[in-house]
What does this fold into?
Amino acid sequence: MAQILAPSVQWQLRAAKGSADASPLSSKSLSSLFVKQNKRGAVKSSTKFRICALSSDNSTVNRLEQLLNLDVKPYTDKIIAEYIWIGGSGVDLRSKSRTIAKPVEHPSELPKWNYDGSSTGQAPGEDSEVILYPQAIFRDPFRGGNNILVICDTYTPQGEPIPTNKRHRAAQIFSDPKVSAEIPWFGIEQEYTLLQTNVKWPLGWPAGGYPGPQGPYYCGVGADKSFGRDISDAHYKACLYAGINISGTNGEVMPGQWEFQVGPSVGIEAADHIWCGRYLLERITEQAGVVLTLDPKPIEGDWNGAGCHTNYSTKTMREDGGFEAIKKAILNLSLRHKEHISAYGEGNERRLTGKHETASINDFSWGVANRGCSIRVGRDTEKSGKGYLEDRRPASNMDPYVVTSLLADTTILWEPTLEAEALAAQKLSLKV
It folds into this structure.
């Protein structure tokens, strides 16, 4: 019988000189990812890192650690801002660092910057400059102190959003008076899969083989059921430190697959927080020597895919009698099903098969407590007559700027013809 692989050996970060070898996924390894507290409980200004330097002796490792963990705050007011943006594929994240003269509290205090768009698939070589506009700030759990992560969107030197800048259009929709008056809430469930680096096979799976059938892995506990928990927990704490509105995590149905949830968040903030959460996850898996994938169906066959279920409500839906507004929203969503599907992530047709807790990509459906529908309404929502809906169609690699703004546009701004509305209501058995 093939042996179940432990998490990548690259998790076995070097122990300090003279100590026993560090064990995989040890608590000491985790402490390398975050800012520790001193005896008085105050947060130190620099993060304690452990260096993965398998080919170097411990003295070299220790010298690198000392430099990484230097506390510069007593000597300078300058901080490091990590500018983060979305690359040409619409899924890849890019970042680079800039020194800022002093701590800042708002993106408007930060300068615009630029990068070589020809190297990210976002501009031609003869006119490659793309401008970064700072839009949201988060604390940096890797560097600690007053250092920050900066979510940016991207523009031409003339100030026009480039085609891959989906945030710009989302900001326009969320700033519409009709939309802002409805105070749209989002709760986004980001699923992801962890892969072994050398074989690109899920973490914990036998090399070249398969684990036992799905069943014991969802929210499972134990070395034969849970693979990558320390990565999930490390990411959880990093998100809390950064100021991301993370609301929970859990192991998913397919072994090696996890989920974190963001929200409830209002408007465009939900998408900013998901993108920063993805960035943190990329950095943590980078340090752990594990590969992160947002592929909606990383393993073909009888295995669950990875989605990004999006819970959504408006002020009207949350008030007494809001179930009627929910049904009206579902009707609108049914009429724009193809438009939503086209914007809900590449490769989603491999996931939305009508199996493994999904609806068919070709059909729109809704139901109460039914995870095999396009739109699920919770039992509590039905009982109380108000609440939210869950759009189960978005893939794990969806762009949250696109999905959240499209939901708001379809359910608040867009109005179908009376004839189309009547036909859809009849088909879906909705009375609105």
Q: What stands out?
A: The chain has three domains: 1-72, 79-164, 177-428. Residues 1-72 form one domain. Residues 82 and 97 are 4 Å apart (CA to CA). The longest strand covers residues 185-196.
